[in-house]
Amino acid sequence: MKPRHTIQAVIRSGDESGYVAECVDFPVVTQGATVEESLSNLREAVGLMLDGEDLAAWNLSPNPSIVVMIELEPDYA
């Protein structure tokens, strides 16, 4: 199987406040008061999870990127 070059994640509104960032294929979930804070926390959490890990064991290429989809609630008139 070809190693993946990206880690997929989703950021969505929290149940009560802020934003939740969650990786699709990895056990990483974090949160922040803003989208920007959630992105920063996600980057840090993924880095901590993969620190010292064999990336090939996770089927990842060296230095993978994080691709983030942001779910937004539409504004209604």
Give descriptors for this structure.
elongated, 77 residues, 21% helix
Short summary:
With 77 residues, this protein is of the alpha+beta class.
Overview of this structure, please?
The chain is α+β, with helices and mostly antiparallel strands. Helices cover 21% and strands 39% of the residues. It has one domain: Double Stranded RNA Binding Domain, CATH 3.30.160. The chain has one helix at 35-50; strands at 4-13, 19-23, 29-32, 60-70. A hairpin with a 5-residue loop joins strand 1 and strand 2. It is elongated.
Write the layout of secondary structure elements.
Blueprint: E1 4-13, E2 19-23, E3 29-32, H1 35-50, E4 60-70
Parallel strand pairs: 1-4
Antiparallel strand pairs: 1-2, 2-3
3D shape? elongated
Give helix and strand order, one letter per element, not per position. EEEHE
Main sheet properties: 4 strands, mixed
Count of individual domains: 1
Strand order of the largest sheet: 3-2-1-4
Q: Helicity, in percent?
A: 10-25%
- End-to-end separation in angstroms reads 48 Å
